[in-house]
Amino acid sequence: MRDQPPAHPSALVPRYLPNCELIQLKASEPCIQSSSPSSISHRGVENGRCVKPNPAPPLIGGSVSRLAQRRELPSCSRISPLRAALATPGPGERSQSVALSGLSSDKSERGGGGGGERERPSSGAEMDGGSGAYGGNGEAWGGAVSPAARYAESGGASLTWENLTAVLPGGGGRATKKLVQGLYGYAVPGRVVAIMGPSGSGKSTLLDSLSGRLARNVVLTGKVLLNGKKRRLDYGVVAYVTQENVLLGTLTVRETVTYSALLRLPSSMRKSEVQRIVDDTLDEMGLRECADRHIGTWHLRGISGGEKKRLSIALEILTRPRLLFLDEPTSGLDSAAAFSVVQTLRQLAVDGGRTIVSSVHQPSSEVFALFDDLCLLSSGECVYFGDAKLATQFFAETGFPCPSRRNPSDHFLRCVNSDFDDVAATMKGSMKLRAEAELDPLLKYSTTEIRERLVDKYRISDYAMMVRSTIHEITKIEGVMEEVIRGSQASWFKQLRTLTSRSFTNMSRDLNYYWLRIIIYIVMAICLGTIYYDVGTSYTAIQARASCGGFVSGFMTFMSIGGFPSFIEEMKVFTLERQNGHYGVAAYIISNFLSSMPFLLTVSWASASITYWMVKFRPGFSYFAFFALNLYGGVSVIESLMMIISALVPNFLMGLILGAGVIGIMMLTSGFFRLLPELPKIFWRYPVSYIVYGSWGLKGGYKNDLIGLEFEPMMPGQPKLTGEYIITEMMGLSLNHSKWLDLAMIFVLLFAYRLTFFIVLKVKEAAAPYIRVAYTRFTVKRLERRASFRKTLAMTSLSKRHNPPHPMAIQEGLNSPMPY
């Protein structure tokens, strides 16, 4: 039953005993069971305990929770409305709910009645103590386990964060910026946590901090625990869906999901089983109708934005991860598509007992009703964290009730978004609108005042104290089996085979990757062949042959830089999949080399066939084969170099500039523009000329073409010039080793460059946590000298019992195993 609310909140004291009537008594009434000034009235008493329960407690949705069955409690137990409302059954009881009367007044009707009230499980819990029982000592629930902790006890992934602060240090005249400060919260299995706030409030920063993907120049302090332990949360431990859809546009939806399944599902699974999982995932995400359509590129019409977002989610739920992060999954989607996406996420959480944390900008009322917990941020501070259905009640208690028939999320953002101040200023200029504004409490204050009032109210509220208590309970839970989490269960060779197939398919369909370059190479070969057509063996042909060989060794390999845009897109996919633990670095590098080999051989042999026979270099197939292999080696080395640059500089424009500069240096030290013996010995001759492909390629090319030929002398009557004389005397090169050694050295450089690419990627992974720790410690020590920074950290702590902030690496776990 629900009693009528009193005229003043202090007139009555709400009480709730499980399986007994909720009766609000005046605070002045004597207790018939106790000498306490507070009392409770019930239908029957025996030895101070409730013995005659009601047939059924009040209901929401017409169902009764098993947790609301008879439970003996002291009759004078004092129950806070907030505690009773947040008492939630375990994962197996989500469909059942019990109404808790007296939680809100008719005026607010669960916090204003905005957005409609959804059916949500709740039940009474045993709680003792009076005021202060929410303190972060783990006894907030009177010795019982809180609802969130009950979810955590059920197994799965329970995430907690305490006093989380992220700072972007200033420098070069820039002020230090606090991105988020003093945040506390938790995410437990079976529930969906929504991180909401206006633009620039810190949603993405918090999400990246929790998932281990924070930018390197951001200092992070605080504590993030997974199942009560410090752990690195990237590279396969958790799944992360980015706001940007990072997909290979040349593949179809089914191919994308199938390749992902083959990369991550156990190798022991039969092909039919993998296909069944793929089909089930497509059905689950509503992608069956577009399964055979391409995702889309500039030359291929693809699927819609909503379908791309659902596909991105489908790739991460294939292996049913225990912990899933999503960065604004509803961004850019219409209301129907957004509802479909969030409904699917909620179903994953409910049915699979998974922990889901998602940032969201401004959801519709239907979407908002699907979230279990809400973390509302503004200017990096927490405005509210707790059960989403109680957020409207908190705002009403603070003096900003949600009007009826208004979307709660719109109301929350209206209170904390400073952009509305401009709208309010405009309204004050109109007499009619000014009169209407008098009725709106939000227009009486600036957004800054409202936000500060909400933040201050939350910090000292029962909501914040209960979050602290719940975090403490979750972190001390024992006996929760922590499974060994791996991003992929496929064997290394299966990963290699799958990646090679996927990469080859992508390269063969992407016009930018190789096909346009093949056309350009053929055109350039024709131009080169016509310019140097039948160059002959005259004296002037010596310079012509050297120039043609230098152009082939330099510029035609330089054109491999045209594949850099495709490298960047592929590296985005690799970075995301690698962080989610889909496969190892070695498998990716080798598969890329194997899949690109047919295209690079086509480029080399097609352009070499045209150029070699039109120019009429030294006749013989073996000489032609050397010429083509020499060109292939140079092109492959440049491709490897550009891949290293794409790993170091993921920016498209900066990568092109850096790549062009490095290749230019290689050309300068190749021995064409200045002879190798004339290069400065320090640095340029040793070691630069030996670690660039140009010098080896040019020497091998000259030997392949000139040795065995004779050229006309400069003056008639003089002896003919042999190719050996030209190489040693005119070009200053040695004939102590054969051309095949020069060719072999190019392939040694190819291997060395690929190995360097591997080392760069692995060092970035392994060294990042240590670099972050060192950087954080140094920066925090420097920032602590500033009074403003110390003040900010102090105000985030609500109790002296809390530990001071400490530097953390990427989730502080430095020893997590990562597959190669």
Counted by DSSP, the helix tally is 27
Give me the secondary-structure category. alpha/beta
Q: Which strand order spans the largest sheet, edge to edge or round the barrel?
A: 9-10-11-7-12-13
Low-confidence stretches: 1-144, 791-820
Strand content: 5-15%
Radius of gyration: 35 Å
Domains, number? 4
Number of strands: 17
Mean pLDDT: 75
Q: How is the main sheet built? A: 6 strands, mixed
Helical content class: 40-55%
Distance between the termini: 62 Å
- Overall body shape: elongated
InterPro entries: AAA+_ATPase, ABC2_TM, ABC_transporter-like_ATP-bd, ABC_transporter-like_CS, ABCG_dom, P-loop_NTPase, Plant_ABCG
Biased composition (Polar residues): 94-105
Pfam families: ABC2_membrane (PF01061), ABC2_membrane_7 (PF19055), ABC_tran (PF00005)
Family: Belongs to the ABC transporter superfamily. ABCG family. Eye pigment precursor importer (TC 3.A.1.204) subfamily.
